[in-house]
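Saturday, quiet lab. Running sequence design on the structure tokens for the scaffold JK sent over.
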């Protein structure tokens, strides 16, 4: 069962990449249009797949849910805004490295600036 789902997801990923690779970009309307019929993705020829305003973007996760794939999050990487696999590995799997502890002084030494010549006006000869 899991192997069949994995094969189906792999086929859908190939179709998904082909859809985005073969789209037609309409420069006047600022849209991306599907050039072919993608029945496995439930997208017909001429469907707008990308637009700049007032548009609900296509989502691969929704397509997997329509195909009744159990746990579709397992097959797609997380959103880049949330983080990614690298962030997950750094935070949850790898051991934290030894970080140098900064020494905090209770009475820091005040920085003494040298006195300004001619009250900061420079050496103007008037």
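Result came back. Writing it out in full:
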């Amino acid at each position: 069962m899991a192997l069949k789902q994995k094969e189906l997801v792999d086929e859908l990923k190939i179709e998904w990449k082909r859809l985005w690779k073969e789209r037609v970009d309409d420069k006047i309307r600022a849209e991306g249009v599907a050039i072919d019929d993608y029945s496995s993705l439930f997208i017909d020829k001429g469907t707008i797949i990308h637009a700049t305003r007032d548009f609900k973007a296509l989502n691969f996760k929704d397509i997997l849910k329509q195909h009744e794939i159990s746990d579709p999050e397992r097959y797609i990487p997380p959103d880049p805004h949330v983080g990614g696999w690298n962030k997950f590995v750094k935070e949850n799997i790898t051991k934290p490295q030894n970080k140098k502890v900064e020494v905090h002084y209770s009475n820091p030494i005040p920085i003494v600036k040298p006195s300004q010549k001619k009250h900061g006006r420079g050496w103007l000869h008037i």
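Notes for JK: The mean pLDDT is 81. The CA atoms of residues 3 and 9 lie 10 Å apart. Ask whether to fix the surface positions before the next round.
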